[in-house]
Amino acid sequence: MAKYKIVYDREGCVGVQSCAILAEQFWKMNDDDKADLIGGTQREDGKWELEIEEADLEKNKKAAINCPVMVIKILDETGDEIPL
Ligand code: SF4
Fold first, then answer.
1. Is residue 32 in a domain?
2. What is the pTM of this model?
3. Domain residues for 34?
4. For position 46, which CATH number holds?
């Protein structure tokens, strides 16, 4: 099964919540009105990332597509950004 990686630039989140509605197992709103990537780890560049299985790809793609500021990216196994 292919693995994918969510990369999330939390700095740019404007708190619209669509990610938390569309993929609630992965996204939840925090007290600062930005979304948290549940189970994610923060990288040195400040972005957050989380590896996901293929079964969880579609819902996270929906979250990424519906994010108005496009701060959610999804990479394939080779590290290329998948088209949304
Ligand atoms: S959809 Fe985008 S802007 Fe809205 S809460 Fe999620 S990450 Fe933030």
1. yes
2. 0.95
3. 13-75
4. 3.30.70.20
Query: Ligand 1 center to residue 21 CA distance, Å?
Result: 10
Contact 4, 75 (CB under 8 A): yes
Instruction: Output the CA 19–ligand 1 centroid distance in Å.
Output: 6
Residue 80, domain member (yes or no):
no
* pLDDT, position 2: 75
- What spacing in Å lies between the alpha carbon of 2 and ligand 1's midpoint? 25
Q: What is the pLDDT of residue 12?
A: 98
Q: How many domains does the chain have?
A: 1
Ligand 1 atom nearest residue 27's Cα: 6
The rounded distance, in Å, linking the Cα atoms of 42 and 46 is 6
Tokens 């579609």 appear where? Answer: 58
Which value, in Å, is the radius of gyration of the alpha carbons in the chain?
12
